[in-house]
Amino acid sequence: MASHLHIESQSGKGANLQREMKVKVTPYVVAVCLTAASGGTLFGYDLGISGGVSTMDDFLLKFFPSVYRKKNDARTDNYCKFDSQLLTLFTSSLYFAGLFASLFASKVTRDYGRRMSILAGGLFFLLGSVVDGLAQSLWMLLVGRIILGIGLGFTNQAVPLYLSEMSPPTLRGTLTTMFQLAIGIGGVSAFFVNYKTQDIVPWGWRLSLSLAFVPALLITIGFLLLPDSPSSLIQRGKSSEGLSVLQRIRGTDDVHEEFNYLLKATEDYKSIGNPWRNILKTEYRPQLVMAFAIPFFQQVTGINIITFYLPILIQTLGFSSNSSLYTTIILGVISLVVTTIGALCIDKYGRKRVFLLGGSIMMLFLVSLTSSIS
């Protein structure tokens, strides 16, 4: 279990320290956080690209001919045209692989650093995008998706942690939320790419899938140049290097108060014999429940499924392939704008208010969507 050693890890003392510290927001730390957050574009791009590719005739004809025949059969009901276990396996294999990869990726993040874990994720994304772009058979396509899923498992658990540990306290919420903003940018980019490549016959789908190589290359190169977080370095016994990085990202040599706090947090963490056993104790039950319940219920609302299958969903409502992809671009841009507003508000109005507002709006529109479809 990767430990979070940033200054909010102990609520009372950490909050006081945060109020007392006057941290300079340097161009370097902004550049570092933006580069790290760009890891979200990998997730967003793969989230958006597969749904659009699944509507392209050339792609379906090569890998899912039965779906292609049903799609072009006027007698088949719209809701049954994409009913295929193999097509579902193509879309879901990435997430199953990501789920299992995250189980051992967290150990890599803890023992070898956040930087190493993100680098590994970038390399897996590079390989997976090449395999999918060159796929000649269904099994090769699925192997590419599984490799991408492994990359997803590494980056999705390491990037938010890296961002939280590198960000200055006064902008921690905003800069950490950049990861979600990058997911939105990746999704919109995928919708736009699908819209442009659908008319490139017969290899437009190859271009769509292989362009995941671009953000993967950027984050891989970026993390070859970026340092690990001070918390991770201190935790792995590299205190002098951690101090140097902390001074650089804070823009001052006077970081000894925060540095000493991180040293103390590391000592406290190492003194815990069995973290998993301790987290199950009664006094930590609220934190345990929130840590699992919030992301779990956010996922099972189905909002990601709607995003993933949005082009297919719109087609089943009677729109053409071109119109469905164009509509996803519009909806993606709206989502991106709202995410930007949320990122700017989170440090000003607090996490809880933004969370409650977002949850209420999501609940309202999910109910409206299901009512309109039924």
TrEMBL record:
TM region positions: 25-45, 86-105, 117-136, 142-163, 175-195, 207-226, 288-312, 324-346, 353-373
Record has Methyltransferase as a keyword: no
Bilayer topology: Multi-pass membrane protein
Record keyword Cytoplasm present: no
Subcellular location: Membrane
GO cellular component terms, A-Z: membrane
Residue ranges of domain Major facilitator superfamily (MFS) profile in the record: 32-374
SUPFAM superfamilies hit by this protein: MFS general substrate transporter
UniProtKB keywords: Membrane, Sugar transport, Symport, Transmembrane, Transmembrane helix, Transport
GO MF terms, alphabetically ordered: monosaccharide transmembrane transporter activity; symporter activity
Broad class of where this protein is predominantly found: membrane
NCBIfam families recorded: SP
Family (UniProt): Belongs to the major facilitator superfamily. Sugar transporter (TC 2.A.1.1) family.
Protein name from the UniProt record: Major facilitator superfamily (MFS) profile domain-containing protein
Organism: Ceratopteris richardii
